[in-house]
Design goal:
Largest sheet: 5 strands, mixed
Strand content: 5-15%
Helix content: 40-55%
Number of helices: 15
Distance between the termini: 70 Å
């Protein structure tokens, strides 16, 4: 068991260490920042400004080739929230129950000079300040100092390996705030960086229809994992994301991820960026379409012909029946992530492509 070292920093010191990347907030298995709603953000900042208690931030310390790095294990949402307030002009909104903060300030005369009593001691006064709709820069200097000087405690797990850090992420986030996709992602620590890199592919900007939450709730990582399985090990595709990630962690290779990267890049270039085409590529079907594109490429067709096929598909081609069922009828009464449904949809698209190009050849 790794030794745990406790350390205390001023909040200003701690946030600077993050800003300088001496403390890393991007551990591959960690879920993305931005999970909190505005009320949670407000309450955290108010807690600091009223000098109340915040639980310790948990770090994992890893040494590779003599270089030591510290990763945020638990406390990413708190850290990112405080950092955004300090450096990015984030505003406290009106959604706050206790918004009057009391602090002491020096009394000034009409000329702005500090007033002193008969013993030459500075005269102080107690002031109440409304923090609603305020940014860090709008706070009085006394409250800025209180924010910067707030003492934040760190508990640092020392001498960790990458796999141990992923396990710690899973352990400390073992509560309802971490959804199933985010928790499952901690089981693919060997390829977490490769998966996160793939979520930054142009495909997810130019072709994929992304909901507001897909990027932060683990959906994109799940979709990429499904793509890697369907394109490289289709028989290993699982409805259970955790099982799929665990299998990839133990059996996949870097080449598998490079193949998917190449497919996504080529696929994006082959598509017309229309609303109808984009609506096809969502969390429900993106992995299925990419697997079908792989079959298409391996059959010897030109990439651009896939884009033409999809244009035909969204303009009525999807009503074509294969084995008595159209696209929309497949799996209508079952989970869209069911392995049987997913494979049937891939098979349907492959068969439909065969019919489509056969008809083109006849017409020619």
């Amino acid at each position: 068991m790794a030794k745990i070292r406790k350390q205390t920093f001023s909040l200003d010191q701690y946030l600077k260490l993050i800003k300088e990347e001496k403390i890393r907030s991007d551990q591959e298995c960690q879920r993305m920042s931005g999970q909190w709603n505005q009320n949670m953000i407000n309450e955290l900042i108010a807690t600091v400004l009223t000098d109340n208690y915040i639980p310790p931030i948990i770090l994992g310390e890893e040494t590779v080739n003599g270089i030591t790095r510290q990763w945020i294990i638990d406390g990413l949402q708190r850290s990112s929230t405080l950092s955004l307030f300090r450096y990015a002009n984030t505003k406290i909104t009106k959604n706050l129950d206790e918004y009057m903060v009391t602090y002491q300030r020096k009394v000034l005369d009409e000329n702005g000079n500090i007033m002193r009593d008969e013993k030459d001691e500075i005269i102080w006064e107690s002031v109440e300040y409304d923090i609603r709709n305020k940014t860090y820069e709008q706070l009085p200097e006394e409250l800025k100092d209180r924010f910067d000087g707030y003492q934040i405690e760190l508990a640092i797990h020392q001498d960790c390996e990458a796999t141990e850090i992923s396990k710690l992420v899973r352990k400390y986030n073992n509560h309802t705030a971490m959804n199933s996709s985010q928790k499952a992602f901690t089981y693919v620590d060997a390829f977490a960086k490769e998966i996160r890199d793939l979520t930054e592919n142009r495909f997810f900007l130019d072709a994929y229809t992304c909901s507001r939450n897909d990027r932060k709730n683990g959906t994109l990582e799940r979709v990429v994992g499904d793509m890697v399985l369907l394109c490289n090990y289709p028989e290993q595709y699982r409805k259970d994301t955790k099982q799929g990630f665990k299998w990839l962690n133990e059996n996949a290779t870097i080449y598998n991820f490079e193949c998917v990267k190449d497919l996504l890049t080529r696929l994006t270039a082959s598509l017309e960026n229309t609303k109808e085409i984009r609506e096809l590529f969502n969390s429900k079907h993106a992995h299925i379409l990419v697997a079908a594109f792989k079959e298409f490429v391996e059959s010897g067709h030109e990439d651009n012909d896939f884009g033409k096929f999809l244009e035909w598909f969204v303009n009525g081609g999807n009503e074509t029946e294969i084995d008595g069922k159209s696209w929309n009828e497949l799996g209508a009464d079952r989970s869209t992530r069911d392995a049987g449904v997913v494979h049937k949809k891939v098979d349907y698209l492959v068969a439909l492509m065969g019919q489509y190009f056969a008809e083109i050849r006849k017409a020619a």
